[in-house]
Task: structure prediction
Amino acid sequence: MRVLLVDDQPLLLLGFRLVLEAQADLEVVGEAGNGEQAVAMTRALRPDVVLMDVRMPVMDGIAATREIVASSDARVLVLTTFDLDEYVYAALRAGASGFLLKDVPPADLLSALRAVAGGDAVVAPRVTRRLIDAFTPLLPDPATGRTEGDERLQRLTDRERDVLVLVARGGSNAEVAAALCLSEATVKAHVGRLLAKLGLRDRVQIVVFAYEAGVVTRGEA
Result:
């Protein structure tokens, strides 16, 4: 996996590089000190994942994430010191596939990078509950009638709907496989078809879609 590091603090970049390059399957392809450099280096180096800081000079990490997601296939994992809700929401709206805090243990950071590269989404555990609590009150009540998501739901098979519900409830591929008596490879294939049929990018967007379409309700979170 090819990773681009983005942070305006050289010592942090060095620390991240040492952690990542100790892994046989990870390669640090470059380091950027601000968002503008990150966008340019993503285009030139074509990393699989961009590990992105938020607060930086010239262009911040949120704006850089938006440009990278719009112009490349790279996935963005935002890593920041600041546990602020507005950063979480802004990062996910910009298209980030994950949001972690810089005090994350190295093992968890490595797992998150691999998960994001594989198409999954990762959000720091201590902000996940706040994210759900803030998001669900804004969602339409499925009892009031059909939603925009209904038409897209019609494209899914019954099995794909089962997978959609379990993924939206936070199930991993292994947990979904166990619940439905399928192999993990089959679940992964179903998730890929869900993303394609629904026009979504990753599992974060699957969760959002499931709530908006009324497939999963607040009591099932």
Q: What stands out?
A: The longest helix spans residues 184-198. Residues 136-142, 144-148 have pLDDT under 50 and may be disordered. The CA atoms of residues 36 and 59 lie 5 Å apart. The longest strand covers residues 27-32.
